[in-house]
Amino acid sequence: MRIRIAVFCSWLSCLLAAPCVQGGPEIQHWQTDKGTRVYFVEAKGLPLVDIQFVFDAGSARDAEKFGLAALTSGLLDKGAGEWDAGQIAERLEGIGAELGTGVSQDSAWVTLRSLTDARILETALKTTAKVLTSPRFGAEDFAREQKRVLAALRRYTESPAQVVKKAFFERIYQKHPYAHQVFGEPETVQALNAREIREFYQRYYVASNAIAVVVGDVTREKAASMIEELTAELRTGTRPAAVPPVDYNAGGHRESIAFPSAQTHIYAGMPALSHNDPEFFALYVGNHVLGGNGLVSQISEEIREKRGLAYSSSSIFSPMMRKGPFIMGLQTRNDQAGEALRVLDETIKNFIAKGPNEEELAKAKNNLTGGFVLRIDSNSKVSDYVAMIAYYGLPLDYLDTFSENVDAVTADEIKEAFQSHLRLEQFQTVLVGGEAKSGGK
After folding, report:
1. Max CA distance (Å), the chain
2. Is residue 149 a contact partner of residue 5, using CB atoms and an 8 Å limit?
3. Is 229 helix (H, G, I), strand (E, B) or coil?
4. What is the pLDDT of residues 298-328, one digit of tens each?
5. Do 417 and 282 meet the contact criterion of CB atoms below 8 Å apart?
6. Per-residue model confidence (pLDDT) at position 18
7. Which is nearest to 325 in space by CA: 8, 5, 6, 7?
8. Of 352, 331, 355, 326, which is closest to residue 432 (Cα–Cα)?
9. Element at 172 (helix H, strand E)
């Protein structure tokens, strides 16, 4: 069985880091009587179908019970209806189907990939329907999953990459629901119980709070019947109120956290971008020049190529339902951290003031608009794109118009967008490292 757990919105960030498509698939859309919004793409050729349910049930819905959404998601397929976790896995493995669950700050999801052969698909759908509508949340399953999450959280404290990420999100989001780790904190996870899991599931895993995506070699009629079958026993429920906006008025701050590692990990940035921001494309294309295009970006050029201060350095906008973060990040030797941070600060300051030159902009556009076919070479990849479009309310022709939107961006628009979205005096900077690693190099 395939389990997909996403933290920090990597599900969406990876999609938006990809180049764009020259003409996207036709996306059909309708709504069921229970309120589930359905998005369908017919993809002929391979006898496969990918189905994805996305719920507004991410960690932003945890309230003070940090880790509740993640633990709920992780328990869905650990026992459902008359089957325990092993029996669910056997049913799917026996027919070559794959079931996955995942969670981020914004959402939680359940995915199914199956052959379209009638016998195989029937078993896959029946099994998935039980996982969606009748999870057990049994005491033993809960204790086992809780223990697994607690072990993962302990490992996080031993990773400077996780420590810097956690501290950075707490600093930029403070009391907003995006501030805490998706998997919660040891003390909050330890305090959870199976009753709270059931209540969270009953509140958020309902038909009216769901988006369903179907991509594969099936007709629209078959897609509709599959969604009806999968949601037949799902409560109608109601959609929750929107997550509050990010109210960010903090002054700039630099925090150093001592950690026994050979390198210092650095994050710097602030909340900046939601999916429906009118300047999204200017920021997206501009960041490709600044730090999003690997070794040929300005940040990498200044920090790695010219000075040899870090092997990897980059920047990214991670749009979310509310303002997601702009992050500049790198890892460098402890004794070089101050110099690396100075160069990083100078690079972003210069880019905000001047933007890209025309040569850099042209190269970025060519890179972003080319070679996309490798990014949509499977139904599951198309399904992820459609889920993103559906969940964040983007236009159904988003993929069709992506290329022209990228090409239309000007250097002046990039400079103006960066100046309006980023304030250096409000940047939060976190450094984790500085202590010699015991027994290490």
Report:
1. 63
2. no
3. helix
4. 999 999 999 999 989 999 999 999 999 999 9
5. yes
6. 40
7. 8
8. 331
9. helix 160-173
CB-count exposure of residue 237 (10 Å: 0-12, 13-18, 19+): middle
From the number of C-beta atoms within 10 Å of its C-beta (0-12, 13-18, 19+), residue 2 rates as exposed
> What whole-number distance in Å separates Cα of residue 251 and Cα of residue 232?
51
Residue 215's alpha-carbon distances to 29, 93, 218, 233, 356, in angstroms, are 12, 21, 8, 23, 38
State how far the Cα of 416 lies from the Cα of 247, in Å rounded to an integer.
22
Number of CB atoms found within 10 A of residue 158's CB: 11
Average pLDDT, the chain: 92
DSSP 202-220: HHHSSGGGEEEEEEESS-H
User: What H or E segment, with its residue span, contains residue 128?
Assistant: helix 118-133
Which of 190, 75, 189 is CA-nearest to residue 136? 75
Q: What is the pLDDT of residues 238-255, one digit of tens each?
A: 999 999 999 999 999 999
Q: Judge whether 11 and 18 are in contact, CB under 8 Å.
A: no
Q: Nearest Cα to 36, choosing from 19, 17, 61, 53?
A: 53
What's the token pair of residue 308?
């040899």
Pairing between β-strand 253-260 and β-strand 48-55 as defined by DSSP bridges: unpaired
* Mean pLDDT score, 372-392: 80
Q: Tell me the pairing of strands 324-333 and 210-216.
A: unpaired
Question: Whole-angstrom Cα distance, residue 52 to residue 55?
Answer: 10
Domains of the chain: 10-231 (3.30.830.10), 253-435 (3.30.830.10)
**Residue 255 near residue 429, CB atoms below 8 Å:** yes
- The predicted model scores a pTM of 0.92
* 331 residue type, one letter: Q
Record the tokens describing residue 134, joined without a space. 């009748």
**For 73, how many CA atoms within 13 A lie in the half-sphere containing its CB?**
34
**Residues 215/383, Cβ–Cβ less than 8 Å:** yes
